[in-house]
Design a protein that fits this description.
This protein is α/β, with parallel strands linked by helices. The chain is about 50% helix and about 10% strand. It is built from 18 helices and twelve strands.
Length: about 400
């Protein structure tokens, strides 16, 4: 495993082994699936996740499987299956069978869809173990949400934007009891440890708007997640910590460094973050801006955001645009934090030579070459034509 990861990540086997040992690097992969392991964390390239999943009355198996294929083809390093209704188990098994990248889930979705607010810890443990046996590679567990966190959230503009977090908060308020996932955390970790499945500690109180960023609710949950990180590691579970959300540009650096400190340098998995609330219809862009900055300051894993965020379920084109935008953000971050500029320099030299074949081959979006016939005419781009700056400069050199 370390031989493959060392080569693919450009990191020595000794450094990988040390990172895995101290928890700053997590290798995601359920032994029950035959997939290439994915390294997430310190010194590794910034990874990108894409969400898929059926939605009541909107999308079915065929369309969501197509979107999964589109996401992986566009460069997604992992998928999360977020179905909340219907034959979720059957669909999950199809995704596990037909894809070759790590798959994450949110078990509370299936528990809530069956039991609503009558679920118990035993219901939850049963679902977690079932998904582990099926081959799920990582799971979002919203164990950091507590009664105190819910009280803080009530003061927000948008109290809870996390769907799984809302299910659990509703259970807590109705039953006037602490989060069963928090109380039963060690039991959940024991199941994950048995199957070597990674926990992604969910941020139920991630900010859903700029106004709520880095507030008491978010920071309270982050402190709880720091304690849970230590407890999970003590039980032999690999840990990723999830983060915001909507965050103004000037707060991103602080958020990234704070998570690393409080959560013992665990890999950080962020949704975006989105840097403005008014990019509706174009939130893959607002997310990519935030993702690049977050990655530069230490985020290890970016969850894509599509143009349809805040509007509705994305179609295949939205999925592709979301993945490409996040891949650009991830690479921009790696240029800075890992010094990975080799491909960029190769692109620059190809441009200098006006080598169109090389330019399209080096592009992050491998399908962009399909536009060649539209924009490249007789070996010249349609922007400048015979007035190409490079050609003009070379003519002066030759004169």
């Amino acid at each position: 495993m370390f031989d493959y990861l060392s080569k693919s990540e450009g990191v020595s086997k000794a450094k990988l082994a040390a990172g895995v040992k101290d928890g700053s690097i997590v290798v995601v992969g359920n032994p029950r699936r035959r997939i290439r392991p994915l390294a997430v964390g310190a010194g590794c390239s910034t990874k990108v996740n894409a969400n898929i999943g059926t939605s009541p009355g909107k999308s079915g198996f065929r369309e969501e499987l197509r979107k999964a294929g589109v996401a992986v083809d566009a460069g997604a390093d992992a998928l999360m299956e977020l179905s909340v209704d219907g034959e979720t188990e059957r669909f999950r098994k199809l995704v596990i069978k037909r894809t070759k990248v790590p798959l994450g889930t949110v078990p509370i979705y299936q528990v809530y869809s069956r039991r609503r607010l009558d679920f118990t810890l035993e219901d939850y443990l049963g679902e977690v173990e079932k998904q582990c046996r099926e081959g799920v590679d990582f799971m979002t567990i919203h164990a950091g949400l507590t009664l105190e966190g819910v009280r803080h959230a009530k003061r927000r503009i948008i109290p809870i934007t996390s769907r799984g977090g809302c299910f659990i908060a509703s259970w807590m308020m109705r039953n006037k009891a602490e989060n069963p996932l928090y109380d039963g955390f060690d039991s959940i970790m024991d199941v994950l440890a048995e199957y070597d499945v990674t926990v992604s500690l969910g941020d139920a109180l991630r900010p859903g708007c700029l106004h709520d960023a880095t507030d008491k609710a978010q920071l309270h949950e982050l402190k709880v997640l720091g304690k849970l990180t230590r407890r999970a590691r003590e039980r032999g579970v690999k840990v990723i910590v999830e983060g915001p959300g909507h965050v103004p540009l000037d707060q991103i650096e602080y958020n990234m460094k704070l998570e690393k400190r409080i959560c013992h340098n665990a890999p950080f998995y962020v949704l975006g973050p989105l840097v403005t609330d008014i990019g509706v219809g174009h939130d893959h862009i607002t997310s990519a801006i935030g993702g690049a900055v977050a990655g530069m300051y230490g985020a290890d894993f970016l969850c894509y955001v599509t143009p349809s965020e805040h509007i509705g379920l994305p179609d295949a084109d939205d999925v592709r645009e979301g993945v490409i935008a996040s891949k650009i953000a991830a690479h921009a971050a790696d240029v800075v934090k890992l010094g990975r500029r080799g491909r960029d320099d190769m692109m620059s030299r190809a441009r200098r030579r006006l080598d169109w074949d090389a330019m399209f081959r080096l592009a992050l979006d491998k399908d962009v070459g399909k536009l060649r016939g539209k924009h490249v005419l007789g070996g010249e781009c349609s922007m400048c034509g015979k007035y190409c700056a490079l050609k003009t400069f070379d003519e002066c050199l030759d004169a």
